[in-house]
Amino acid sequence: MKRTKSKKLFEEAVLRIPGGVSSPVRAFKAVGGEPLFIRSAKGSKLTDADGNIYVDYVGSWGPMILGHAHPRVIGAIAAAAKRGTSFGAPCELEVALAGEVVKAYPSIQKVRFVSSGTEAVMGALRAARGFTGRKKVIKFDGCYHGHADYLLVKAGSGAQTLGQPDSAGVPQEFTAETLVARFNDATSVEAICKAYPSEIAAIIVEPVVGNMGVILPRDGFLQKLREICDREEIVLVFDEVMTGFRLAYGGAQEVYGVRPDLTALGKIVGGGMPVGAYGGRSEIMDMVAPVGPVYQAGTLSGNPVAMAAGLETLKILKATKPYRTLEKTTRALCDGLREAAKSAGVPVFVAQAGSMFTVFFVDQEVRNADDARRCDTGRFAAFFRGMLEKGISLAPSQFEACFVSSAHAPADVAKTLKAAHVSLTRVPNF
Ligand code: PLP
User: Fold this and answer.
1) How far is the CA of 120 from the centre of ligand 1 (A)?
2) % residues pLDDT > 70 (the chain)
3) Residue 45 bears catalytic tag
4) CB of 267 within 8 A of CB of 86?
5) Ligand 1 midpoint to CA 153 (Å)
6) Closest atom of ligand 1 to CA, residue 117
7) Which of 111, 206, 245, 417 could form a disulfide with 268 if both were Cys (CB 3.0 to 4.6 A apart)?
8) pLDDT for residue 429 is more than 70
9) In angstroms, rounded to a whole number, what is the distance separating the alpha carbons of residues 314 and 331?
């Protein structure tokens, strides 16, 4: 595959943009090679700067559940843009989108729009701290909640570790109130609660994890978190930035039947435009300014063009109910990938949650971050590069989710599996 234009653009980009990219994983550092520069995207396909076409399973990291450039979503964006791109004042579209979110999520009585998932989580946790008057937050090893200082914490060796900054530029003091538990291990949460009685404001979790690859909660795990939060008067925050409107219209909380106190949303709720949202019980949300003392604001929050994209996306999802088909398409893909790996003699664990999946290069089930770290990332990188050469774009890291959209047709799955058979056969030789 010729990639001369992408290569040239990358050479130019690195001179002016750190690493040549606006978000780090796009740089392909975990898999080697150079990033593709994308010229356009339509349905299930991406076209790069050189005109190469790829079946896309990145889906802009989750938002593109309807496929790229859905004509109705583009129409709604164009119509909104003609009326003005930003008002810095309330508009009808945000009222309509808030109405849809509240209807879809019974746990959400009030919602505040922001411009990214990172902001949504920051807002939710600030509201939780304001509401409880407590400082500490429990997160789980391997879960990603955006790039706020105090959430850039990776776990140490133990299950109950005090936060260690995961990034230069984050003082240790800023992460001192972040405590790390182990996903799928409620006893690790209980131990932290016991060590810090009445000090924990919130437990934040990706109810189905996407950010160490796809990891499903074990039976009863989310329910147990709910129980602990009720008992200890802790605010339970579901980070559904990735899973919201993705696993079901009502997100992971609909699938697992657990009601958080607050929910962070992003990605699909903005229909491919920069939107995040956080919401939940009125008594907590009414802590937020201008009603309450918890300050949070944004110049472009509730932006009319972004609201229009989100609203149209939700309307289509509600009308077409694609979730069963998405699950079926993804299941066919995952079954085929398992089969291809078996016939190539490569041990893999393929995890699927609805239309999210990850091929882990490991010979056992992946239940938490420790399991995920056992993966052979060299093999993953070889697989990724082999697939890309055959016109299949996967997430460029072992520790990410891939996404299927309603635009992915059986022919896309067939092409992907054909590529996988070849790529997996070559994996052990790298
Ligand atoms: N939370 C989760 C679960 C995410 O997957 C992400 C991003 O991938 C974020 C938060 C941060 O969202 P954003 O990148 O829009 O700031």
Assistant:
1) 9
2) 97
3) no
4) no
5) 15
6) 12
7) 245
8) no
9) 24
- How are beta strands 356-360 and 402-403 bridged, if at all? antiparallel
Q: Annotated catalytic, 267?
A: yes
SS3 124: helix
Query: What is the SS3 assignment for 264?
Result: strand
DSSP letter, residue 240 = -
What's the pLDDT tens digit per position in 100-133?
Answer: 999 999 999 999 999 999 999 999 999 999 999 9
Mutate to test the pocket of ligand 1, among 125, 211, 265 (most ligand atoms within 8 A of CB): 211
* Atom in ligand 1 nearest the alpha carbon of residue 116: 15
Contact indicator for 44, 407 with CB cutoff of 8 Å: yes
Q: Can you read off the two tokens belonging to residue 144? A: 């990603």
Supply φ then ψ for residue 151, to 5 degrees. Answer: -105, -5
Give the pLDDT confidence score for residue 159 in this predicted structure: 37
Tell me what the pLDDT averaged over the chain comes to.
Answer: 95
**10 is written with which tokens?**
């990358």
Say how far residue 205 (Cα) sits from the centre of its chain.
12
Distance from Cα 312 to the centre of ligand 1, integer Å: 21
Measured CA to CA, the distance from residue 329 to residue 313 in angstroms comes to 20
pLDDT of residue 153: 86
Span 322-366, pLDDT tens digits: 999 999 999 999 999 999 999 999 999 999 999 999 999 999 999
Query: What's the pLDDT at 428?
Result: 67
What are 45's two structure tokens?
């396909």
> How far apart are the CA of 65 and the centre of ligand 1, in A?
16
CA 112 to chain centre: 19
